[in-house]
Every structure is written in C-alpha cells, then in structure tokens.
Amino acid sequence: MYSSSQLKPTYVSVKTHIQESTGTRFPFPELVFRGMDVDPGIHDVVLTVRRGKKVARYNIYFKKNTNLPVNRCVGALTAGSISAWYGDVLFMKLGSKIEGVVNWRREDNHLANLALKRFVSHVKQSGTTIYPLNLQFDE
Predict the structure, then answer these.
(1) Whole-angstrom Cα distance, residue 129 to residue 127?
(2) 8 A C-beta contact, residue 34 and residue 4
C-alpha cells in the first residue's frame, strides 16, 4: 500500500472473500483505506505490465478526492514529477492461473513501484475523469 501517512510503501493484509463455486477471490480494500469518511468511493483499474515475456497484472485501488491528504509516499517515489496525489493507493497482484487476487511476492515490489510511477502520471484525480478499466505498460 502506498499510504498517504507513510514515506515508503508498506505491506498490508487485505481481507478477501472466496466465492465457493468458482474460487474467485474478491478483496475488501475499503477496510484498509484512510479517508472513507471524506470519500467512501474507491476506484479500481487493472494494470498489465509486460517485462520481456513475463506479464504481471495488478488491481490498483485509489480515490480521486483532492480533499484527502497528499500522499507523501507517492510524492517520494515520483520525486515531484507530478503535482500531487491525494489519498491512499493499493496495489494487489492478480493471478495468472487463479481468478482474482493472489499473494504478493517480494519481486512484485520493484515492478509495482515502476508501475505506480507510470500510473500516477497517466491518471488524473481532478474533475469528472472517466478512468479506463485496463491500462497496459511495457517495462
């Protein structure tokens, strides 16, 4: 999680619901987000990152309300290359063989940091922005 209250990304445990009939795992990101009283809505985008022949998919959860605290973690990682990002950002790894979210691995840290930089430079939080359901980057 890229928390607005931290300078570095932190690992958080997110409760999930597993649908018995399909085995699909559905996370509850609202349980780890700050600022739910300011803005209860959470947006999500599926981000695909291609690194050579490997493909990593992440579900990114975020808020678009500029009344939330400035995210110092995003600011530190982007070194001021964007004006500001408000509120928390949560990356969750999507499975390649399992439908839904899967456990985070150490090698996901570096790729997620790179993906976050690309993501926040492409997605704007202000106005009536319509977010794409899927984004794709080559690393």
Answers:
(1) 6
(2) yes
Asked if 69 and 39 count as a contact pair (C-beta separation under 8 A), the reply is no
| C-alpha angle 63-107-27 in degrees, rounded to nearest 5 | 40
Helix or strand or coil: residue 78?
Answer: helix
CA 90 to CA 88: how far, in whole Å? 7
* Nearest-angstrom CA–CA distance, 15 and 25: 10
What's the confidence (pLDDT) of residue 64?
82
Instruction: Please report, for the chain, the start and end positions of each structural domain, with discontinuous segments joined by +.
Output: 16-122
Of 103, 88, 71, nearest to 31 (Cα)?
88
Residue 49 parent element (H or E): strand 43-51
DSSP state of 131: P
Residues 19-72 have pLDDT tens digits of: 899 888 899 999 999 988 998 989 898 988 888 888 889 999 998 888 999 999
